[in-house]
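=== Given protein ===
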Amino acid sequence: MTVSTAVAQAVATAPHLASLSGEQRRTMLHACADALAAAAREIVPTALEETGLTMARLRGELNRTTDQLRQLGDHAAQPWRRVSAGVAAGGGDVVTVPVPVGPVAVFAASNFPLAFGVCGGDTASALAAGCPVVVKAHPAQPRTGELLGQILARTLPDGAFSLVAGGPEVSLELVRAAGIRAVGFTGSLTGGRALMDAAAARPDPIPVYAEMGSLNPVLVLPGAAVPATVSALATAVTGSAGQLCTKPGLVVTGSAAFADELAAAVAAVPVHRMLTDGMAQAHEKWQAHASAAHRVVAGAGSPAPFAVIVDVDDLAGELLEEHFGPSVVIAVGAAEDVPSRLEGSLTASVYADDSDREAARALLPGLVARAGRIVWNGVPTGVAVCDAMQHGGPWPATSASWSTSVGTEAIERFRRPVALQGLPVELLP
């Protein structure tokens, strides 16, 4: 389907979706979840062949996808009204209600082909808000995207969902289309910035909610339980071949022995192929470059898992950049000044025990200023889909640090509040 046709259908359908009650949207999203679950035997093998991700990972991701559709549907059915009684001129009430923004452009992510893909969180939250969606499938998973799109298209009302495909020119055309009112994106910093620039250059600029690059630093304080911490971090670095947006990209420790143990553990983990040839080549290039400049402990295979061990005083430049793939930078030295050198991240983690409380207290303000989620004695991978979750962060992690792409608050990106002052009760929506 062309972008112009898809957007025209979305614009025509927008008033109908906006008029649906919360209960009707809940029914709609639950039906999508049921349809996806019923097609699991077709969806999972297709995604497995295109991505190289494991069967267990994809089965779990499909469960998450259906769960978040149901959860966002349930949230959409809850009353949303704020009332201040008798405060307006003449003693009238001020009532605030949510209004869908209109058609939303969603860009499917490659690293979560289901939970952040065609039928993922951005699509689910836009539909829950009452907005039709036009989704651009990821070119790395065309068959998976087409299959998911067919399931949603036959489950949702006509025009509520459309799927387009193509390269960068299609992406820009979609963002520039006059009927699109907001954008949801998960991908690279380069891609996200291009969409932001296109959206800002429109005659009527629109918001782009982009999740982009994130280092996700982990600070290991002296009291941390070493064997458990090493095991958890090695798994988090290499899981899904290091292609998670929350992968720990930097670990800071005061112990050289801990650094060596973690590096050996990372190098020992077998990993599967990466999502695309381009990602695999970038990982190999980073390994070669790091090996020429720093001490690297690497494992076997392609992609090879590896750790770059440096002194904390050397942290700068590419050592503080996100590198997709099963790799991590381990910095040895004091952690006190590290937060001030970091850019924004989705997460920051601290491993510690009771003896480290004062040191942790000193670190937390800097971490809070640079991350959307702080994890205590846990890895950042594995993001709970819940009311309180904040999956966002300061630039360059996201384009809108106050918003989240995970959890029920994700709906608020795609609806706006309207205050109704002094309206008769019988006219209130």
